[in-house]
């Protein structure tokens, strides 16, 4: 089976925005019907000639965070079962939440590589507030702006090293 990267995280952190961005380049190159597959939860992408499949677990999002809480174990388990690597996305706008701790605890127990991504770091001024995520007990995170694409290159450079 090919390399599979799952994007997990609370609703509204920016998972689908990153998913669409990762697919964009590939579609622009090989798919003349670009845009048609935007709503799919699985997509093909590549980085430096390495092909991989991306899963947007937002397909299992159900709107509010309350309901999402009940779905967390299922969603994370699906991602862990299916993926070779996991992107755990949080965002600097809302900061670190109880749900984030809960998701991270589940991911930590998997034997899959987990890449911790702090999204919505749209400019240098969000780098400092992002340091609060060290409270999770992590050694490294990637700051990203899925909206502009900045930071995605450094993340993908490291992810494809797993493959
Ligand atoms: P999901 O629920 O995790 O899939 O999140 P979405 O991708 O649907 O994004 C939720 C909201 O955050 C949308 O309004 C996006 O436009 C916005 N968003 C996503 N990424 C960024 C980012 O890097 N910066 C900013 N400022 N907004 C973002
Ligand atoms: Mg989504």
TrEMBL record:
UniProt organism field: Chryseobacterium populi
Signal peptide: none
Residues that, per the record, bind GTP 1: 9-16, 56-60, 119-122
Biological role: GTPase that plays an essential role in the late steps of ribosome biogenesis.
Superkingdom of the organism of origin: Bacteria
The protein, known as: GTPase Der
Coiled coil: none
Protein family per UniProt: Belongs to the TRAFAC class TrmE-Era-EngA-EngB-Septin-like GTPase superfamily. EngA (Der) GTPase family.
Subunit structure: Associates with the 50S ribosomal subunit.
Ranges for domain EngA-type G: 3-163
């Amino acid at each position: 089976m090919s390399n599979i990267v799952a994007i997990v995280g609370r609703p509204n952190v920016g998972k689908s925005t990153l998913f669409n961005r990762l697919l964009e380049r590939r579609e622009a190159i090989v798919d003349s019907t670009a845009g048609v597959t935007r709503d799919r939860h699985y997509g093909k992408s590549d980085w430096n000639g390495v092909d991989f499949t991306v899963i947007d677990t937002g397909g299992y999002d159900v709107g509010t965070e309350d309901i999402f809480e009940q779905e967390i174990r299922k969603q994370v388990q699906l991602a862990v079962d299916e993926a070779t690597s996991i992107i755990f996305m949080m965002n600097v706008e809302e900061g670190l939440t109880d749900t984030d701790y809960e998701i991270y605890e589940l991911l930590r127990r998997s034997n899959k590589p987990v890449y911790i991504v702090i999204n919505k770091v749209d400019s240098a001024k969000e780098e400092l507030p992002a340091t609060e995520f060290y409270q999770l007990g992590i050694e490294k995170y990637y700051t990203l702006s899925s909206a502009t694409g900045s930071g995605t290159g450094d993340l993908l450079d490291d992810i494809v090293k797993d493959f």
